[in-house]
Amino acid sequence: MDKRRLGRSDLHLSPVTLGAWAIGGSMWGGQEEADAVAAIQASLDAGVNCIDTAPVYGMGRSEEIVGRALRGRRDGVIVATKCGLAWDSPAGTHKFTMTDVDGSQHPIHNDLRPERIRQECEDSLRRLGVDVIDLYQVHWPEPGRPVDEAVRELVQLRSAGKIRWIGVSNFSPAQLDSARAIAGDALVSTQPLYNVLDRGIESDVL
After folding, report:
1. Which residue, of 30, 186, 197, 203, is most buried by count of CB atoms within 10 Å of its CB?
2. Is 194 known to be catalytic?
């Protein structure tokens, strides 16, 4: 499978990335772990070399399953995950309430405090079973909180060798400008809502 360079980074991704949201189970009716691991490994066998996940996908379960699937297969695989949505703390701004597969309700909070980002990064490294995260993304900007503080923390995590490159998700053009002013060329991606039915970003973000 052909590879494409991501921004000015040294990451060369397959055009198809495996999104691991549904693998977490929550909001998707549940998944069999063995099937999820087999799907990840089949995608790698087919030439996919990037897996995109997030802590909030199944409240940590997606990252754990991705980590199990990558045991012994980490080389050459680009691992992308995110920060900023918390299910285990009331701090920050309430974003939505997630229903788990057992019917339990979990309030999800948008929390981009630097200390929270540091904790999330360490938790993601542990769940994924990796020494460094290739692409670490802010999942959602927090309403009422400038993105500057969060991006500065990502720059610090990069300097500490915890992450390799910085990405953002669901950022407006103004927020992208703010992030780029701080992160510079370390900011290599933005992940917006974009599909054949929802093309709003063509008028601004793109």
Report:
1. 186
2. no
